[in-house]
Structure formats: structure tokens, C-alpha cells
Amino acid sequence: MNALAVDGLLADARARTGLDEFGDDWFVEPLSVLTNALTTEARLSPLGLDLTRRRLVALLADRLRAGRTRRRHPEIDDVEVTVAAVICGLPRTGSTLLHRLLASSPRLTATLSWETSYPVPFPGEGSDAAERKRRARERAALFLQMSPEFADIHTIEWNGPEEDVLLLDRTFTSMSFDSFYHVPSYGDWLRRADQTPAYRELREWLALLRWQDPARAGRRWILKSPHHLMATGTVLDTFAGSRIVMTHRSPVRAVPSYASMVVSMSGQYSDHVDPHTVGPYWSDRFAATLTRYAATRDTRPDRYVDLRYRDLVADPAASAAGLLDDLGLPADDADRAAFAAYLDRDRATRHAAHTYTAEDFGLSAHQLARDFAGYREGTS
């Protein structure tokens, strides 16, 4: 019996929620590609298989619950979603720091970690979302218990800004999956796929979150994920008026750093994680992604803003303020105070240094420099 058979997952989600209206079934194709790769390539441990099945059913259940919520509250479809900027860049290029800085501005907003885990209100839940927040705290604690070294790579804040790509997980069209699992056939499919329906749904998820939180009225969204690099044209088509913010750091440093993060995450699901497979996979993938990004950028150069990693880490607050200027939202005193407060919190919670070498992941500085030679914007 295939524990990840699509029909079984759909049936379990229906049984779990008592709902059966999935609506447009376009998502079944990416779900099928993913589950086939998980079954044939990921080498899941017994625990990994159980966790993965639970996760997929939960994502499907969220689709059902979100559909019910929108049917009961058709006003959600009229909620305005205004995106100021979409932060891209390779992973480990300062994008998280920039995202959290900008999200601290009183005029901007971002998806919060607990929202990306539990975006749909539970039946009978109050506006404080207490149950979802409790579960999110416990989930973050469990994640760090399973991968304690992860905190040295990426700071987890259950109530802080987190990548909106985690909302895209519910479309099964998301870079999350080949970051957590060795599923190269899924990664190949994802790079070729038309992501228009996934981004249409991302907009719907943002509207649902805005509807739940009136305090977000009038605030523009700051989105962030390296996933968006694969579909910058679709991003710009979906969010009119938005700008792509590209963070730049030498791939010689960024790629091995991300490989170490992937090894940490995927070890939760498989006992057969090979770092020397992980490194070349992501090196090849990011090289292809940047080539595609460059071609797309050339068609709409006015929609892109660049920020160098070395400038960001040298003066984060000034970099964030300068970016607001580029976005037509000149920084004011409230923005600067928010940036300073965030940086104080960040310094207080920073963990040990993250150490690794390219060779740890089957890579070398020479090979990376050669493979990314066409990356014109890269700086160290």
C-alpha cells in the first residue's frame, strides 16, 4: 500500500475536516508529481514518512477550510492586496535580515511564522488565534528539538516574519519540498511549471490573512523567498506595482551555506542524506535559475532593485531606509525607530556562528566560480 497515494491523502483530508469541496483541481498535478518523487526518490525513514503524510493531509485540509471560509465570507474576495516589494536573491544573501527589518516598519506587513503554519481560523476560534499560536510555538520547539543545529543557521521566530513560500506549500508548487526532501524529479518539474495558478492562490491567501487582521489595513506587503526567483515574471504580473528586490552575494559563499541548511532540514525525514549530493543539486539548480532570472529581468528592468549583501550587513538600517526610498516610501522617524528596535532584538537572540566549507557538500570554490561566472551582479 502506498501511504502517499493521492486518492488516500484527499480522502483523509475530507474525513479530517468533514468537507469535500476542493474546487479547481489544478493542484492535483503538482501533488501527484511530488508524491511520486517522495515515494521513489526521497528514501523516507518510517518517522519521515509519517511526518510527511501528516503534513500533506494538513495542507489539503487547509485548502478545504480556506474554501469554506471564502464561501461563508465572500467579502474576502474584495480585500485589497498591495505588495510593495518581493525580496528574492539566492538563499543566504541577507534576504531574511532585510525582510524582517522592512516588516518592522509601521507602514508595511509580512506573513508571520504562525500564520504560514496555520493560516485558516479553526472552528469557533476567537480573533486572538490563541489555539493556532499555541500550536505554532509547539511546532517550532519540536523542529528545533529534531534539528538543534538549525538555530545556528537560521533564527526561528514563531511570531515573527517568515517566508510566504510556506503558504505556497498548499499549492504543492513550492521550493520548500525539494529543500526538505531529495526529490530531484519534482525539482525539475517545478522549474518548468507554469506557476500562474499558484501565485493566484498566494494572492488569495494574503487576502485571507488581511481579512483576519484589520490592523493590516493600509499596509503594504513585503514578500520574500528565493522561490520567487523561478517565476519573477509571474510575480510581477500577479502583484501590479510591486518591485523585485534582488539581494546579491557571491554564490561561492551562498550556495554551500544553503546546502548546509538543506542537510539539516532533510535529516528530519531521511536517514540517507548525502551532503555530496545536496551540494551539486543546489549549485546546478541555482545556476539555471539565475540564467532564467536574468532573461526575465531584461524585459522589465524598471521593476527591479538591487542590494549588495556587503552593504546590507555593514549598515542594515541605512540599507532598509534606502530601499524604502527606492520603493517610493521615504523612511520616516517611525521607520528608523522600528529598524533600530529590530536590530537590538536580533543582536540579543543571535546564535553561534555558522561554519561550513564548500567541500563539505561536494563543491569547491573554483567550480562554483566557474559555474556562476555569468552572474554579473554577484558580489562578496
From TrEMBL:
<dbReference type="InterPro" id="IPR052736">
    <property type="entry name" value="Stf3_sulfotransferase"/>
</dbReference>
<protein>
    <recommendedName>
        <fullName>Sulfotransferase family protein</fullName>
    </recommendedName>
</protein>
<dbReference type="InterPro" id="IPR027417">
    <property type="entry name" value="P-loop_NTPase"/>
</dbReference>
<dbReference type="Pfam" id="PF13469">
    <property type="entry name" value="Sulfotransfer_3"/>
</dbReference>
